[in-house]
Amino acid sequence: METKALSDFITNHSVFQPTIDGFWYYLNNWKLDDQHDYESAWENIDLESIKVVVKKVSLTINYRYDVAIEYVQAYASISNEDEEVAVYHPLFSLEGEDYDDVLSFTVFE
């Protein structure tokens, strides 16, 4: 995929807003599915003050058993008081459909 094609994909599928919305959806589902785990993870963070900012979108090709798996991946920085505390990665099929997502935490010191 050329840079122009990726830029068109981002525009045509409005990648930024679904990424931000997807984070909040992920967070709300986590709270419903495992409230104890959710509260442990976010106990020192004021959820009202966190900011979600999409910083990167890229085409990714992973290989599993020599089979290419292609998708578009967004990178959203999750910040609290101007410090990144987590990263949310939604994955989109090349047709623009939700494929998967993952939330990873920055190591707390």
Task: Give the key terms.
alpha+beta, four-stranded antiparallel beta sheet, 33% helix
Describe the secondary-structure layout.
Layout: H1 3-12, H2 16-33, H3 35-42, E1 50-64, E2 67-80, E3 83-92, E4 98-105
Antiparallel strand pairs: 1-2, 2-3, 3-4
Helix pairs in contact: 2-3
CA gyration radius, whole angstroms: 15 Å
Strand content: 35-45%
Q: Helical proportion?
A: 25-40%
What can be said about the biggest beta sheet? 4 strands, antiparallel
Number of helices: 3
Rounded mean pLDDT score: 90
How many domain modules? 1
Distance between the termini: 39 Å
Give the gist of this structure.
The protein is of the alpha+beta class. The protein has 3 helices and 4 strands.
What does this protein structure show overall?
- The chain is 33% helix and 43% strand.
- It has helices spanning 3-12, 16-33, 35-42; strands spanning 50-64, 67-80, 83-92, 98-105.
